[in-house]
Amino acid sequence: MIGLPEEELDAAGAIPEASASAPSVDGVPLAVRVAEAERRVAEARIDVERSAGISDITARAGVRGFAESDDVALVAGISVPLAIRDRNRGGIEAARAELLAAEARVAQARLDANRELRDAQSLLSAADARLAALEGAGIEQAREAVRVARLGYAAGRFSLLEVLDAEAALNTTLTSIIEARRDRARALAALERAQAQ
């Protein structure tokens, strides 16, 4: 950047702003939706286990013919199993335990999603503050130092070494701005991931 005109120093342009609000589908993170679907499956399993504990009543009907007299008779029957001891209580209790576990997974998924979202928002806020400081006073001071050093060198008051030091400081500031923009882009991506999950 030695001998670079001021116009080109200003050309270290800003990256376009990206949207910080990329909502997830229906506003609910994917992990939470999956956990809620698993909870609904566990609720349905309780109904299945309850129905397995109900005795099946079987009805039969038919026609029977007698060979000796050529008579035909209607035959009907009903069977009702007596479930005295087995009402599938074990299966129902297991399904209820699975429902409790599924509800705990939903709560954990919500907590994790909220934590990831807050962490991403904090990272983005810190990156924005760092970038604002560097692009504001930081770069202006570095540019002013280069300008004064060049004027002083032209007037014979500063050595070339002092001009090089000022330009190196400006280069360091510009590098820091690039890194800050990269960090901001990463923080923004993390925020969008957290909102989309």
UniProtKB/TrEMBL annotation:
GO terms for molecular function: efflux transmembrane transporter activity. Gene3D superfamilies: Outer membrane efflux proteins (OEP). Keywords: Coiled coil. InterPro entries: MdtP/NodT-like, OMP_efflux. SUPFAM superfamilies: Outer membrane efflux proteins (OEP). The keyword Cell division does not apply. Residues 92-137 form a coiled coil. The keyword Coiled coil applies. It comes from the Bacteria. Belongs to the outer membrane factor (OMF) (TC 1.B.17) family. PANTHER family: BLR4935 PROTEIN, OUTER MEMBRANE CATION EFFLUX PROTEIN. This is TolC family protein. It comes from Tsuneonella aeria.
